[in-house]
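User: Last request for today: this protein with NAP, please.
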Amino acid sequence: MNEGRFNLGLIGYPLTHSFSPQMHHAALRQLGLQGEYRLYPIPPLPEGTGQLEDLMAAMRAGKIDGLNVTIPHKRNVISYVDELALTARATGAVNVILRRGQRLVGENTDVAGFLADLQHHLPAGMESRLALVLGAGGAARAVAYGLLREGWQVIIAARRIDQAESLAADLQAQSVNESGKIEPMTLEGIQGKEFQRRLGEWDGEFMLVVNATPLGMAPDEGASPWPPGAAWPRYALAYDLVYNPAETAWMRAARAAGLRAVGGSGMLVEQAALAFELWTDLSASRQVMAMAVSQPIHPTS
Ligand code: NAP
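Assistant: Here's the final one, the structure of the complex with NAP:
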């Protein structure tokens, strides 16, 4: 903390779509804290290398107390921190940087943020723990790691099978949880017999389908990751990580097929609140942060 002020911010590019300033300013205000949450748009590397180095040096010098990190820098910042928390190491992605004494620590609150929100939406006493995750990028990695940790079996479906295979191999190698299991497939494969065969083999019903691709995000709101004509699981919760718009085309299609569907704003609030708590050691009101997102000052992503 600098003279009683919290200097917080977000590194990423582009950042015109961020809801984070609203959420963190609301949390600061609610606790009567002085401070600000600034946006630091840093272009992809190598162009942004100098800016990233300067910002990390400023944090090391105590001028910045906490940073969020988003696309495209979640992996880039790893070489600038002194240590990685377990979840950041396991997912290979940092979305929060905090200072502990002189040391910079890279954390990942997407995993706990997703799991915390998910538990509000799953039925109590659910038996099958089989999930389908669409996409194999950073968010899919956090989601799949969290689910494995909780003992779920996960199919990870991506348009590039090599990306799904490498994610599955990485997480499987970590033996996150003995009952957890992860298998790769292609997004196209959801339409085919192979998918049905796997379902039979795994002897389960999908209870969860997660969209971890950006498809459906504003401004391209008509896009959906679900392959045309593919059958929907009967009982699953459709969980879209996309949070702008609040209701995506994919969520509407899932509802039309009889599924329950939720969007990504709950996870957005949870991961932000967890970051805020790491920086301030104070507890953040999810309700206040959620209100800030539902009444955006800058209605963007
Ligand atoms: P990412 O690392 O870029 O990964 C995106 C994934 O989606 C990749 O597998 C990518 O495949 C795939 N994809 C992209 N365009 C596609 C297309 N047209 N068809 C099929 N697959 C496509 O991004 P991310 O960080 O994982 O973020 C994914 C989404 O989650 C974003 O919308 C982000 O805003 C959201 N998110 C939400 C929260 C939250 O708190 N609610 C947190 C984190 C992320 P390729 O590599 O082949 O392009």
